[in-house]
Amino acid sequence: MAPISKECDFLVIGGGSGxxxxxxxxxxxxxxxxxxxxxxxxxxTCVNVGCVPKKITWNAAAIAETLHEAAxxxxxxxxxxxxxxxxxxxxxxxxxxxxxxxxxxxxxxDDVEYLHGRAHLLSKTEAEIVLDNGSKETVRAxxxxxxxxxxxxxxxxxxxxxxxxxxxFFDLERLPKxxxxxxxGYIAVEMAGMFxxxxxxxxxxxxxxxxxxxxxxxxxxxxxxxxxxQGIHIHRNSAQSKIEPAAEKxxxxxxxxxxxxSPDGAIMDIDCLLWAIGRSPEVEDLGLDKAGVEQGPKGHxxxxxxxxxxxxxxxxxxxVCGKVELTPVAIAAGRQLAxxxxxxxxxxxxxxxxxxxxxxxxxxxxxxxxxxxxxxxDAVDRxxxxxxx
Length: 389
Hints:
Helix content: 25-40%
Number of helices: 11
Mean pLDDT: 96
Distance between the termini: 63 Å
Strand content: 15-25%
Low-confidence stretches: none
Radius of gyration: 23 Å
Largest sheet: 5 strands, mixed, barrel
């Protein structure tokens, strides 16, 4: 085993929203000697390929929608050209880079040591960090937080690698003319709305009759109806069998699929395919087995409401746990964990934890959707139909 090169009170693996919040609170407020490790860009999914660039893009789409509707309100506005998407994309990139720098400066302000590299657990108290230059550090920590987040899934459909995921959406330099999105959750619905209002012919492929199926049926039906009214093409009861390059059309693809209208199969020429079929925890090379950390059936780290794993002094929070995958939840859970582990006086913070009940969520569709509390079906299941008004 490599010699120990660094020791600390608290090792935080993962520089996303939850990890950053926990590390800064532990060090900056409570004085714990803290080391943070991140292998990608600081800020995690939300800042780099999630909430922040998504909301910027949603706002651009909302502006396009407003321009389209302006004449109905008496405004005389002439739009001489569509959005310069390449310029918009580069401005969005610059904004994200600025945020990355702010996060790193804030770590310094709170005396958190920052290592850019890939971490692998060696035991329940030690981790090996492979730095960008290939050198290695072995860190021994009294407590370890796993906050590594997740990544998008790609199916095993032949030719699936010709498509992109939500990560690749933010790398697009030009707006596709015809885009196909596969999925029925937040990401698919949000990006379908953005593509459509920015000017792409948009096709949304879903497996069932509606999307956003964790929401009340009233919300599902309303948004599906509105998307179809706006001109988004929704392919119900769909499945994709193959994707292949369209040799005669440079840059295009042929999507082979079935849906409610074409049960015997159809082919569509598209120039962008986006998979939004779910996410998996980022645990592939984390070394969980070496520390004995328990995982759920889909690979998520099992943690209780106090963020404890089954291994003493190893904790987990955020998307890697698969519980409530929302940025404000990870931030709040991280701060509460730091309070519980390092807060003083200890008796005040001994039971600090996030309350996971009644957490609001918003889908940045067009129009937006918000919810809080139990869905109608969840309420019926929990309390009985006769007790739900």
